[in-house]
Design a protein that fits this description.
about 130 residues; two-stranded antiparallel ribbon; 4 helices; about 25% strand; 7 strands; alpha+beta; about 25% helix
Length: about 130
């Protein structure tokens, strides 16, 4: 379970010990397992998860937590990929942008990867 910390407006789970909002008293839950009631005393509310949309190949789904009727809810927005995101994505290969970024971060293979991608785009790659 993931929590939303109301005082900071951030998504984070309670640490092993947290202070209550009203008195500042420290709470350390038994076995480190927070109950929702204990977490709420320290300003933490559980985030209500929603269904993750399935974006198209040229789209991306981004999540943000918003307060809806005072409760944190994860909301999703599907948007078109930017030109930079599209440029680093291989058609039909989910997660290829991350893989390409990791490969390109290796200086010894950057030139080879650039040449491979150029040949792929030009249709001159022969395997």
């Amino acid at each position: 379970m993931t929590y939303y910390h109301l005082p900071t407006g951030s998504e984070r789970n309670p640490r092993p010990g947290e202070q209550t909002l009203d008195t500042g008293q420290w709470i350390t839950p038994y076995n480190g397992q927070w109950t929702d009631a204990e977490a709420a005393l320290c300003g933490f509310l559980p985030i209500t998860e929603t269904v993750t949309p399935t974006p198209g190949p040229d789209d991306i789904a981004e999540a943000a937590v918003a307060l809806v009727d005072g409760l944190p809810v994860r909301q999703w927005t599907v948007r078109p990929k930017t030109a930079d995101e599209l440029a680093t994505t291989l058609p039909g290969v989910p997660g290829s942008a991350d893989v390409l970024a990791a490969i390109k971060a290796q200086p010894t293979v950057t030139k080879r990867v650039d040449a491979l991608l150029a040949a792929l785009e030009a249709g001159t790659l022969v395997l």
